[in-house]
Predict the structure.
Amino acid sequence: MEGTSHDRIAPSELVIEGPRDFRVDTRVYTSPAVFDEEMHRIFENTWVYVGHTGEIERPGDFKTAMIGRNPVIVARAEDGKIHVLLNECRHRGNAVCRESRGSLKNFICPYHGWVYSLSGDLVGVTHPKGYPADFAEKLGGLLKLRSETYRGLIFASMTDDVPRIEDHLGDVRKYIDLWADLSPEPEFKLVKPHHYGYQGNWKFQCENGIDGWHARFVHESAFQTVAEFGGPPTSARSTVGCTRGFDRGCAILERPGISQGLSQDQIAAYRKLLEKRHGAERLEKLWYVRHVFLFPNVFLFDNLIRVIQPISPEKTIVTSSGLMLRGAPDDINRVRLLEMQSRLSTTGMINPDDLEMFASNQTGMRGAKMKWIVLSHGMGQEENVGGAELKGEDTAEVPQRAIYREWTRLMNVADNRR
Amino acid sequence: MELLRPEAEDFLYLEADLLDKRDYDAWLKLFTRDGIYWLPMDENADPTLESSVQYDDTKMREMRVHQLVRKYHYAQHPPSRTVHAVTNVKVAPSGRADEALVRCTATVAEMREGDYLQLGLGEQRLFAGHCEYRLRRDAGGALGIVLKKFVLMNRDTPIINLSFIL
């Protein structure tokens, strides 16, 4: 959207950082103009998560996704290579793929019958005599996006002007390895996703998944219920965890120990599988619940991948795919699935209370007189643990500050729209 | 197991009433000890190895009710009002001497109470689906739910706030 200078609010007005001060203008959550800018400047200028290799395991498999507002297809071609394609016929713009997942030999546009291969090449135009002989070759097929995969995670970028994914991920990469190594055999298997949403801005979910401060308040009803039915006492949900912030808006909330509802015997069996693969020393590094946030749109938890899809300033959809362990017995995966589903899904005991917070956040944000929200908790108390990695207490807003620093960087990117 | 349509209907209407009155402790008692409450995404999938919208055994149902009734569950404060309508009730062959199979259509209108000018409150929504109940009689002849399966029309699309009981 081409804003005039009085439409566009400068990013420097929206995020203010001082020595122990970090404030964000509430218009980042409410303004349609800011939302439009985000969909372009953020989602079209960096690596965005579009799927996991476990969702398209065989040649011919595909799934659809959105990069901001751009509909894309993620497909595995006959040769096994993965392609991310704009879901838009080169003729008159029709979305050639209308299913969210499936398996096909090629994509056929329903409008005038043009055919594209799984790698996006324009295989055939119907009634070709109406065009010069080299028309199809010159026009090209479905627009291919630059796409790279890391530990099963498929990323795509609307711009070619991004570093290799490993370089983009930088210091957070070793934590992605720790996450991925939780599957005894790489990579995780995915079950069908849970779909839910909320009436609030997409960034509320980004800020919440790596927020260690809210859980003891918002999720008290869930934690107490679990404890009263024989689970770990609520005091065990302690403050021994930490937060981490990285470049490129990445962040982590971490606490030691993994339970996933498993019995003591099952935990021992799982740990034995991991130790066999990774050794005793690395096992101890793996054995954490880590919520890893990769800006702008994906969370990696020990038991699910959660994708955030902005719809409008006040509406967001979340797609949450449970992770099953490859190389673990069914009884372990059964317990993990039901534990994840009963806590963190469409009907979970835990996450609907977050979604309720987001709706009431969004309601409150409509109060225009309150200009700023405050994200300075733990500022000046962080530890620089190497590279760009900052570490704080679990209640520190280290992750949220990392998010808004990257948000500011991308919102300042030159407008390269036509 | 012998079950005629009027008795099946009366049982389903009783369940609907208890849910609309939010008498969840009484609703729990309608299930057998091995009873399952299932909102599938895929009816043909194994719900212990594949995702469902919800798949609750007795303990999970009791935990949900505990969180709803005896704890401050923010997603249900203010609470949902519901109106359950049960129609198209048919008793079908169950394939088991100790169970009856009842199919029906259910529509549930739902609305959160509270300040309707605020987001997430005061909006009327409709949930709809086909249900299948497997019922068993106890020693006294009373019906109990072995399986309640509610196949929601919108089961594989985003649902905002499904923290009440359908």
Observations:
- Confidence is low (pLDDT under 50) at residues 1-6 of chain A.
- Residues 264-278 of chain A form the longest helix (15 residues).
